Amino acid sequence: MPPEGHHSELYAYFALELVIMAGTVMLAYYFEYTDTFNVHVQGFFCYDNAYTKPYLGPEEASAIPPALLYAVVSGVPTLVITVTEAVLFLMQYTSKDLDSRKKTIATGDCCYLNPLVRRTCRFLGVYMFGLFTTDIFVNAGQVVTGNLAPHFLTLCKPNYTALGCQQALRYISHQEACTGNVEDILRARKTFPSKEAALSVYAALYLAMYITCSVKAKGTRLAKPVMSLGLMCLAFLTGINRVAEYRNHWSDVIAGFIIGVAIATFLVVCVVHNFKGSQMLSEDPRQEDTMGSPRVESPLEKYIASQNHIAFDEVT
């Protein structure tokens, strides 16, 4: 049974993780649904062709509406990872019995946490944290830059005569230049980087790397790259659709792709270590806790180890 000091350290570790996750969710909420952070008002030139593209309706009228995108990036990875982990666990469960040591894990002998639940919660927890982090990075970029959408002037409806736009090179920088709907204009100022591109490529890359690293069954040598490339193609099509509907510039989409790829790569490589970690029933629970935290030796363990080392030296 692990010492009490070890339990306290792990409980504190879990509490810290929950606080970080809650803070991330709250920050994403404030960026998305409140006006706590004011969007930078970027100016424009009169009759600028880069911002006079047609407006094809609200986001709900898009070929890939936000509701569908959010449902896919949150639901599909959750389903795939849960089903895959369950299948891998059952395959190993039929070949060997559960090690009794599995009961001596992070929570101690008081609670038994199934290794399937441990791994699934770990991978999904990291994924959801990355999803909210991507949303925060994108929203922060949109608020700071205030980059204009390709259809901005179509929604802005500026009075060119009152603004003195007899010359096309005149630069308009004040917010009162627009006469259109205020909410539509505000959304048209938040395009860089593209949130849809960032979330879609993050979900696709994380899931593709999970499939590639976790599934080791025979006959999947060709299936895994095909599935991974298919996921990435869907993400790129999402970005292309944003440009085709004049909702984002190419620069917005590329920046979104970079953010999504960077966050997914960092989490997979540095946090979950390419999903290799401890492998279901063969893992040693003394080396890794429920969420992948390193094992911390207690003072008693250190004392016993030192005494064994001294005894060994005396014998030799």
Automatic annotation (TrEMBL):
Q: Which GO terms describe its biological process?
A: phospholipid dephosphorylation; phospholipid metabolic process; signal transduction
**GO CC annotation: what is one?**
plasma membrane
Coiled-coil intervals in this record? none
Domain named Phosphatidic acid phosphatase type 2/haloperoxidase is located at: 124-268
Q: Which Pfam families match?
A: PAP2
Q: Which SUPFAM superfamilies match?
A: Acid phosphatase/Vanadium-dependent haloperoxidase
Q: How does it sit in the membrane?
A: Multi-pass membrane protein
GO MF terms here are:
phosphatidate phosphatase activity
Against CDD domains, the record matches this protein to:
PAP2_wunen
Grouped into one coarse class, the protein's main location is: membrane
Which keywords, in A-to-Z order, does the entry hold?
Cell membrane, Membrane, Transmembrane, Transmembrane helix
Where does it live in the cell? Cell membrane
Report TM segments. Answer: 12-31, 67-91, 124-144, 197-215, 222-241, 253-272
Query: Could you confirm whether the keyword Cell membrane appears in this record?
Result: yes
Q: Which family does this protein fall into?
A: Belongs to the PA-phosphatase related phosphoesterase family.
Q: Which PANTHER family does this UniProt record tie to the protein?
A: LIPID PHOSPHATE PHOSPHATASE, PHOSPHOLIPID PHOSPHATASE-RELATED PROTEIN TYPE 5
Task: Name the chain's protein.
Answer: Phospholipid phosphatase-related protein type 5
Source species, please? Answer: Ictalurus punctatus (Channel catfish)
